[in-house]
Amino acid sequence: MLACRTLSKMLVVLVFAVLVSTPVYAQQKENRDQGRGESFAFPTLRELALSTLMLGAYDTNDNKTVDEYAKLMYCSLYLEKYKSDFEWNSVRQELTRKLQGKHEYFRTHYEITGTIYLGRYSFETQDFPFERKTALVNVGSLTLFSSQTFNPGLPCHPTNAQTSFLPNNYLFVLQQPLTLDRLKMPMDEAEALLKRLDLMNNKDRALYIRFRVRLLGAGNLQSMGPYTSVMMRGDLVGVDLFYDRELTKHFAVISLK
Predict the structure, then answer these.
(1) Cα–Cα distance measured from residue 177 to residue 17, given in angstroms and rounded to the nearest whole number
(2) pTM check: above 0.90
């Protein structure tokens, strides 16, 4: 499965749709920006929770929401003031005004990454199939963050207990199912790629993929057994391939059309 670099290298969880989409193609670009981009970042629980709140998944008039927001964003203040009913009521009112006025910076641009492995080149179809279970077929959503596989260790949530403000999973819902199961290339470019991988001593034929997304909205919380998920809406801004895990050696842009 794809490995997600969210603080540590945890697994990307895939939710499959039933519709069929077409294979994607790689288009190499010589002058593409090699960096990750200042406006995009790997997801963290703290930032995603704030993004979800600001995008309308929670009622900012609800005292419980305000309290959970305080625990997440102002843990030391919460620990100091919450024990006093009157002091905390004043803090809660100020935080409520802050939330209702949207006076808070929050991130909407995120990126997640993973690894794909190329199989042997098919001369009939002129492509490299993806192997080792790294092919995506009719994928309906990607996980931005899952506390089931990564414990964020937040000070005010020492046991990582889940609340209505901290769901287990943050899922990015694709506008249409995505199939990405092969890398289509002409024979001359495929031969050049294999030579490049050999020179890099990349015997596994591994390439590194990056998904960039822009969040536009958040749906209601959904319970799936013992776990809670929130569905994030937005745009899949771009998909890129790299030669290296650090994403410094750009290889190709994936066309989603």
Answers:
(1) 6
(2) no
Helices (H) and strands (E) in the chain, counts: 5, 12
What is the secondary structure of 160-199 as a DSSP string? ---BTTB-SEEEEEEEEEEEE-EEE--HHHHHHHHHHHHH
Contact in structure between 173 and 72 (CB atoms under 8 Å):
no
Place of tokens 């969210």: 6
Q: Percent of the chain scored above 70 by pLDDT?
A: 78
Q: What are the φ/ψ torsions at residue 244 (nearest 5 degrees)? A: -120, 155
The CB density around residue 30, as the number of other CB atoms within 10 Å, is 5
User: Taking a C-beta distance cutoff of 8 angstroms, is the pair 246, 200 a contact?
Assistant: no
238 or 24: which carries more pLDDT confidence?
A: 238
Helix (H) or strand (E) holding 236: strand 227-242
What H or E segment, with its residue span, contains residue 45?
Answer: helix 45-52
3-state secondary structure of 88: helix
CB-based contact 170:46 (threshold 8 Å): no
pLDDT score of 70: 92
Alpha carbon distances (Å) from 213 to 107, 113, 154, 172: 11, 11, 25, 8
Q: How many CB atoms lie within 10 A of CB 188?
A: 8
* Nearest residue to 36 via CA among 246, 256, 251, 257: 246
